[in-house]
């Protein structure tokens, strides 16, 4: 959600127009983020979108675990009356039995279950944290670390091996025009990493290793 202390009313109005336009795109991800951030959704427009979600899901080129999340989230945001297909839900629930291949996949599987109101059992949390630890040994790219921070925040536990990687992530930030810091991949990746760092350091009571100038940038 937008922080009004940092953006004026004109900025907020412009963003609302962006989200309104996003609902008109035949894109499941755009529908999810637009419906998540719009203040007031037209009932008829919401109903029309609900009827299109399954088609948008089937046409999406995203990874299965990504579009599973966006379908669940969009349905919830739009207050769809139609229940998600049992076959689809069964596939989502059984996904915990397979071994994820990336921190991104773990993240989407976890948050999808949470959106469905499913309590993640401790044995599954422990399993995913162990897998995550092994995955980071093979891939500690900034994207992998960004999703890892969010996974650790969602699952919690006593293990802090992810929070201990915060400094490793921050040193990968590039300075742009001497005015800002961002990570390779642009604003979306920077947002992923920064919000993940804030979440994981808060949960594990660690200080963010940034000086005041870096924080501003």
TrEMBL record:
<dbReference type="InterPro" id="IPR008814">
    <property type="entry name" value="Swp1"/>
</dbReference>
<comment type="subunit">
    <text>Component of the oligosaccharyltransferase (OST) complex. OST exists in two different complex forms which contain common core subunits RPN1, RPN2, OST48, OST4, DAD1 and TMEM258, either STT3A or STT3B as catalytic subunits, and form-specific accessory subunits. STT3A complex assembly occurs through the formation of 3 subcomplexes. Subcomplex 1 contains RPN1 and TMEM258, subcomplex 2 contains the STT3A-specific subunits STT3A, DC2/OSTC, and KCP2 as well as the core subunit OST4, and subcomplex 3 contains RPN2, DAD1, and OST48.</text>
</comment>
<comment type="similarity">
    <text>Belongs to the SWP1 family.</text>
</comment>
<feature type="domain" description="Ribophorin II N-terminal">
    <location>
        <begin position="7"/>
        <end position="217"/>
    </location>
</feature>
<dbReference type="GO" id="GO:0006487">
    <property type="term" value="P:protein N-linked glycosylation"/>
</dbReference>
<keyword id="KW-0256">Endoplasmic reticulum</keyword>
<comment type="pathway">
    <text>Protein modification; protein glycosylation.</text>
</comment>
<protein>
    <recommendedName>
        <fullName>Dolichyl-diphosphooligosaccharide--protein glycosyltransferase subunit 2</fullName>
    </recommendedName>
</protein>
<dbReference type="InterPro" id="IPR055373">
    <property type="entry name" value="Ribophorin_II_N"/>
</dbReference>
<dbReference type="GO" id="GO:0008250">
    <property type="term" value="C:oligosaccharyltransferase complex"/>
</dbReference>
<dbReference type="Pfam" id="PF05817">
    <property type="entry name" value="Ribophorin_II"/>
</dbReference>
<comment type="function">
    <text>Subunit of the oligosaccharyl transferase (OST) complex that catalyzes the initial transfer of a defined glycan (Glc(3)Man(9)GlcNAc(2) in eukaryotes) from the lipid carrier dolichol-pyrophosphate to an asparagine residue within an Asn-X-Ser/Thr consensus motif in nascent polypeptide chains, the first step in protein N-glycosylation. N-glycosylation occurs cotranslationally and the complex associates with the Sec61 complex at the channel-forming translocon complex that mediates protein translocation across the endoplasmic reticulum (ER). All subunits are required for a maximal enzyme activity.</text>
</comment>
């Amino acid at each position: 959600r937008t922080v009004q202390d940092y953006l004026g009313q004109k900025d907020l109005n412009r963003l609302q127009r962006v989200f309104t336009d996003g609902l008109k795109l035949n894109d499941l991800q755009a529908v999810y983020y637009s419906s998540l951030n719009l203040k007031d959704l037209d009932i008829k427009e919401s109903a029309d979108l609900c009827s299109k979600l399954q088609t948008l899901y089937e046409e999406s080129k995203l990874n299965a675990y990504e579009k599973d999340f966006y379908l669940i989230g969009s349905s919830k945001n739009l207050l769809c009356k139609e229940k998600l297909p049992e076959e689809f839900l069964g596939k989502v629930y059984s996904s915990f039995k397979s071994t994820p291949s990336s921190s991104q996949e773990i993240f989407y599987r976890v948050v999808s279950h949470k959106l469905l109101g499913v309590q993640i059992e401790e044995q599954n949390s422990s399993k995913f944290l162990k897998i995550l630890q092994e995955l980071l040994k093979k891939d500690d790219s900034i994207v992998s670390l960004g999703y890892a921070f969010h996974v650790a925040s969602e699952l919690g536990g006593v293990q802090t091996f992810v929070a201990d990687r915060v400094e490793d992530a921050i040193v990968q930030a590039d300075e742009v025009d001497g005015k800002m810091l961002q990570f390779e991949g642009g604003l979306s990746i920077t947002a992923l990493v920064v919000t993940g760092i804030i979440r994981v350091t808060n949960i594990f009571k660690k200080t963010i290793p940034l000086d005041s100038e870096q924080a501003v940038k």
